């Protein structure tokens, strides 16, 4: 798996950024099963966070949080235009199930995955 | 809408995501949740029905990869690429491919030429649209929506009633989620990707949004050959995801004024237009779909 999955070739800037310094837990190489979370990526698709479960240096599962059912709330920054701000302030207190957006590429997803792999010392 | 995205290097089935041992994940809730990287975008499945097994979802995902192989303009051996090179005649195409191309042609008429599979290859419109020269076509603006609808039909055949499928920001909402009678769907804020501009509550409806891409305009007016003006994003809600997606793509390309008229005249489809002066315009049916 390593030779194919651990290259950054073809990945976007967001993925490359996720690969730079990550804290490596001391027990990552142990034979225990452990779950690592990737960075919360906000690129394009509102919030995407990938968690991987690792056993004996192999990924045994990947899970993805992509909506506020996972206790994420949508905060907005204090800018933008008057009517939109009104809408957004109203919307931010809601929990949503999914989001309709301009087409999202896989980059945010990949970036978060690589971040999680970095934490698990698989990179 | 995918038509104008740059190639992503490796084709999607060879990306790191697919190569990693993914599989279907147990959740704290009943049902299945799964993310698959197909067609260069994340496909998110949220199936609330407990009776739908990983095998049924796996078959749907496998079929989606077949769609990618058949339709991608970035794969030299796809039917579309071979059609563009004149290696296949329309009569030799897979019936599903022909079905999509026929619907594209219908939509070109319905939208007054604004939904146009030939636009990506028209001189000067985009720097790179995959394999194919002038005169080629790229139906990917419809393929995603068509594939979402087919995937949903397959899930229903497998016994699913309450589920959502979201492919790169376009979503189909079937039934209702756990603990709620409608799916709450945020419309992305066009000026801030992590924010929501409006929340709708939807059941048995589909929603698609077109807009200017964060890195710059990615939808061009196929008639004028330039980026449309006056709109930041345009969202269409209605019964069919493929139609909603195509309408959103076409109407956004029209620019604010023409899009307003187009959306007001749609039958069975509603729209949210966010204009570049910050104003939000909705068609009459949106009021009943607003959350809270």
Cross-sheet strand order for the largest sheet of chain A = 1-2-3
N- and C-termini, Cα separation of chain B? 30 Å
What composes the largest sheet of chain A? Answer: 3 strands, antiparallel
Uncertain runs of chain A are 1-30, 43-47, 66-93
How is this structure best described in words?
The complex is a heterodimer of chains A (about 120) and B (about 290). Chain A starts with a helix and ends with a helix. In chain A, helix 2 runs parallel beside helix 4. Chain A has a three-stranded antiparallel β-sheet with strand order 1-2-3, with helices on one face. The radius of gyration of chain A is 17 Å and the shape is elongated. Chain A has helices spanning about 1-5, 15-20, 80-90, 105-120; strands spanning about 35, 50-55, 60-65, 100. With about 120 residues, chain A is α+β, with helices and mostly antiparallel strands. Chain A contains four helices and four strands, in the order H-H-E-E-E-H-E-H. Chain B starts with 15 loop residues before the first helix and ends in a 10-residue tail after the last strand. In chain B, helix 5 packs antiparallel against helix 6 (about 240-255) and helix 6 runs antiparallel to helix 7. Chain B is built from seven helices and ten strands. Chain B has an eight-stranded antiparallel β-sheet with strand order 1-2-3-4-7-8-9-10. Chain B is globular and about 55 Å long. Chain B has helices spanning about 15-20, 55-70, 80-85, 95-110, 140-155, 240-255, 255-265, and strands at about 30-40, 40-45, 165, 170-175, 185-190, 195-200, 205-210, 230-240, 270-275, 280. In chain B, about 55% of the residues are buried. With about 290 residues, chain B is α+β, with helices and mostly antiparallel strands. Classes of the chains: A alpha+beta (about 120), B alpha+beta (about 290). At the A-B interface, strand 3, helix 3, strand 4 and helix 4 of A face helix 1, strand 1, strand 2, strand 4 and strand 5 of B. Strand 4 (about 100) of chain A pairs parallel with strand 5 of chain B.
């Amino acid at each position: 798996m390593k030779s194919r999955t651990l290259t950054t070739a073809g990945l976007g800037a967001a993925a490359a950024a996720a690969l730079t310094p990550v804290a490596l837990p001391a027990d990552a190489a142990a034979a225990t099963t452990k779950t690592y979370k990737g960075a919360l990526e906000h690129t394009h698709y509102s919030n995407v966070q990938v968690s991987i479960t690792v056993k004996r240096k192999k990924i045994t599962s990947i899970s993805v949080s992509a909506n506020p059912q996972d206790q994420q709330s949508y905060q907005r920054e204090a800018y933008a235009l008057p009517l939109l701000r009104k809408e957004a302030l109203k919307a931010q207190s809601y929990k949503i199930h999914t989001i309709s957006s301009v087409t999202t590429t896989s980059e945010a997803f990949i970036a978060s995955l690589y971040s999680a792999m970095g934490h698990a010392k698989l990179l | 809408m995918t038509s104008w995205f740059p190639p992503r290097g490796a084709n999607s089935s060879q990306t790191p995501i697919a190569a990693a041992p993914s599989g279907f994940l147990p959740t704290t809730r009943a049902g299945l949740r799964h993310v698959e990287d197909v067609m260069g975008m994340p496909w998110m499945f949220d199936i609330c029905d407990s009776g739908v097994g990983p095998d049924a979802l796996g078959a749907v995902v496998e079929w989606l990869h077949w769609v990618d192989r058949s339709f991608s303009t970035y794969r030299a051996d796809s039917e579309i690429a071979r059609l563009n090179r004149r290696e296949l005649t329309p009569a030799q195409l897979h019936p599903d491919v022909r079905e999509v191309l026929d619907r594209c042609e219908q939509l070109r008429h319905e939208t007054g030429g604004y939904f146009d599979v030939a636009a990506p290859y028209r001189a000067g419109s985009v720097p790179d649209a995959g394999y194919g020269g002038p005169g080629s076509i790229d139906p990917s603006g419809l393929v995603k929506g068509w594939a979402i609808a087919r995937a949903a039909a397959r899930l229903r055949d497998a016994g699913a009633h309450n589920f959502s499928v979201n492919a790169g920001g376009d979503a189909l909402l079937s039934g209702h989620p756990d603990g709620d009678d409608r799916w709450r769907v945020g419309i992305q804020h066009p000026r801030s990707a992590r924010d929501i501009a409006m929340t709708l509550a939807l059941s048995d409806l589909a929603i698609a949004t077109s807009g200017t891409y964060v890195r710059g305009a990615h939808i061009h007016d196929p008639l004028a050959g330039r980026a449309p003006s006056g709109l930041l994003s345009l969202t269409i809600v209605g019964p069919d995801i493929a139609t909603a997606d195509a309408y959103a793509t076409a109407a956004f390309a029209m620019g604010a004024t023409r899009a307003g008229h187009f959306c007001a005249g749609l039958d069975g489809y509603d729209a949210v237009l966010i204009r570049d002066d910050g104003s939000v315009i909705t068609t009459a049916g949106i009021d009943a779909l607003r959350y809270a």
